[in-house]
From TrEMBL, chain B:
Catalytic reaction(s) noted: N(2)-formyl-N(1)-(5-phospho-beta-D-ribosyl)glycinamide + L-glutamine + ATP + H2O = 2-formamido-N(1)-(5-O-phospho-beta-D-ribosyl)acetamidine + L-glutamate + ADP + phosphate + H(+)
Alphabetical keyword list: ATP-binding, Cytoplasm, Ligase, Nucleotide-binding, Purine biosynthesis
Gene source species: Arthrobacter humicola
Domain of life assignment: Bacteria
Designated name of the protein: Phosphoribosylformylglycinamidine synthase subunit PurS
Function noted in UniProt: Part of the phosphoribosylformylglycinamidine synthase complex involved in the purines biosynthetic pathway. Catalyzes the ATP-dependent conversion of formylglycinamide ribonucleotide (FGAR) and glutamine to yield formylglycinamidine ribonucleotide (FGAM) and glutamate. The FGAM synthase complex is composed of three subunits. PurQ produces an ammonia molecule by converting glutamine to glutamate. PurL transfers the ammonia molecule to FGAR to form FGAM in an ATP-dependent manner.
Family label: Belongs to the PurS family.
SUPFAM superfamilies in the cross-refs: PurS-like (SSF82697)
Subunit composition and interactions: Part of the FGAM synthase complex composed of 1 PurL, 1 PurQ and 2 PurS subunits.
Organism ancestry: Bacteria, Bacillati, Actinomycetota, Actinomycetes, Micrococcales
EC number(s) from the headed UniProt entry: 6.3.5.3
Pathway where it operates: Purine metabolism; IMP biosynthesis via de novo pathway; 5-amino-1-(5-phospho-D-ribosyl)imidazole from N(2)-formyl-N(1)-(5-phospho-D-ribosyl)glycinamide: step 1/2
HAMAP family per UniProt: PurS
C-alpha cells in the first residue's frame, strides 16, 4: 500500500492540506473482495483509509465509510442479506441516519447491503440475461449534489468497470417515480443496459444525499494504466475526491 | 424433532429470471406442458422440543426480517411439520 502509483502518474486532484487528515473507513466482511482497491482509491485521492472489520462495534473517528464489493457470506440467502445484520452495520445505519449524516458509499455488493439495510430503497435481482458480466461501462452522473458526486459536472459521462451477476435494480413504480422526482437517481447506464435495471438505473442516493449506492466500480478506475481503456481510465477517482472536499467543506 | 417450514416466493409482479431460464429448458427435455415456472425457496427450521406459539411467532418474524426481502419476495407459507 505504500508504493504509489505502480505505473503512470498519480492524478489525485484533491490538494487541500487538510485532506490527508480525513479518515475514510473501508468495511471488510467475510467474502469481501474489493476492500484493498477501495482503500487504495482513498489513498490516491489524498486521504487516509481505515480498515473496519464487520464484527467491530465502533466506527472510531472516520469521516466517511465505503462498503466495497465482493461476495459477503458467499451471497448466501440473498446478496447482502446476512452482511446487513453484522454488528458494524447497525453502527453505520445509525451514523448515516444521524444528524451528522455520515457519508456512506456502497459499491456493488456494498449497494446490495445498503438496500438490504433499508438505507436505500429497492433491491437487486439476478441479471435479466442470467450471466455474470464484466465490462467497461459508461455512466451518466445525473445528480452531482450528493456527498460522493460533487466533483463531477451534472450530466457528465464517466467510464468505470462493471462486474456482477445480481445487478438488476428493481423497485415498484411508485418508488421509481419518487426517486426520479427527488433527483435520487444518481447514475444511469448510457448506451447499453447491462443487466435489465429499471429505467437504466446504475446508482441511487437516500433523500439527504449522504448515502449513495451503485453497481459499477469507481474504485477500479482511479489509477492511470489500470482503469478502463475508454476515457482517462481514472474517471472513478472523483467519488473519493468529492467526499473529501465535502468533509473539508463541512469542517470549515 | 419437529421442523418449521418456511416457503418464500418472488413477488408475482417481479419477473423471475431463474424461473424463466428453467421454463426455457423444460421443452428441450420433452416436458412441453408447462408454460411458466417460478422458483422460490424452502427453509426448514429444526426445533429442539415442542413448537410453542412463541417459537412459531419467532419463525414468522425471522421469515419477514431475514429469510425474505419484502421488496422482492413474499412469505407464502409458515407451517409446523412433525418429524
Amino acid at each position: 500500500m505504500t508504493e504509489l502509483p505502480l505505473i503512470g502518474e498519480a492524478v489525485a486532484v484533491a490538494a487541500h492540506p487538510r485532506l490527508a487528515g480525513a479518515k475514510i473507513g473501508v468495511v471488510t466482511f467475510p467474502g469481501t473482495l474489493d476492500d484493498r482497491d477501495a482503500a487504495r482509491a482513498v489513498r490516491l485521492a489524498g486521504a487516509t483509509p481505515v480498515e473496519l472489520w464487520h464484527a467491530g462495534t465502533t466506527l472510531g473517528d472516520v469521516d466517511a465509510v465505503v462498503i466495497p464489493g465482493g461476495f459477503s457470506y458467499g451471497d448466501y440467502l440473498r446478496a447482502g442479506a446476512i452482511a446487513r445484520f453484522a454488528p458494524l452495520m447497525s453502527k453505520i445505519i445509525d451514523a448515516a441516519n444521524s444528524r451528522a449524516l455520515l457519508p456512506v458509499l456502497g459499491i456493488c455488493n456494498g449497494f446490495q447491503i445498503l438496500t438490504e439495510s433499508h438505507l436505500l430503497p429497492g433491491s437487486m435481482i439476478k441479471n435479466d440475461h442470467l450471466k455474470f458480466m464484466c465490462r467497461d461501462q459508461v455512466l451518466r452522473v445525473e445528480n452531482n449534489t450528493t456527498a460522493w458526486t460533487g466533483d463531477y459536472a451534472a450530466g457528465q459521462e464517466i467510464t468505470v468497470p462493471l462486474k456482477n451477476q445480481d445487478g438488476q435494480y428493481i423497485a415498484d413504480e411508485k418508488t421509481l417515480d419518487a426517486l426520479e422526482a427527488e433527483g435520487r437517481v444518481v447514475f444511469r447506464y448510457v448506451g447499453f443496459n447491462p443487466n435489465g435495471s429499471r429505467r437504466d438505473i446504475a446508482g441511487i442516493s437516500n433523500a439527504a444525499g449522504n448515502v449513495v449506492g451503485l453497481m459499477p466500480h469507481p474504485e477500479h478506475a482511479v489509477e492511470a494504466g489500470f482503469g478502463p481503456e475508454i476515457g482517462s481510465g481514472t474517471e472513478g477517482l472523483g467519488f473519493f475526491t468529492s467526499v473529501l472536499n465535502k468533509i473539508v467543506g463541512d469542517n470549515k | 424433532m419437529p421442523r418449521i417450514v418456511v416457503d418464500v416466493m418472488p413477488k408475482p409482479e417481479i419477473l423471475d429470471p431463474q424461473g424463466k431460464a428453467i421454463v426455457g429448458a423444460l421443452p428441450r427435455l420433452g416436458f412441453t406442458a408447462f408454460s411458466s415456472v417460478r422458483q422460490g425457496k424452502r427453509f426448514e427450521l429444526t426445533v429442539d422440543g415442542e413448537v410453542t406459539e412463541e417459537i412459531l411467532a419467532q419463525a414468522r418474524d425471522a421469515a419477514e426480517t431475514l429469510l425474505s426481502n419484502p421488496v422482492i419476495e413474499d412469505v407464502v407459507n409458515v407451517e409446523v411439520v412433525e418429524a
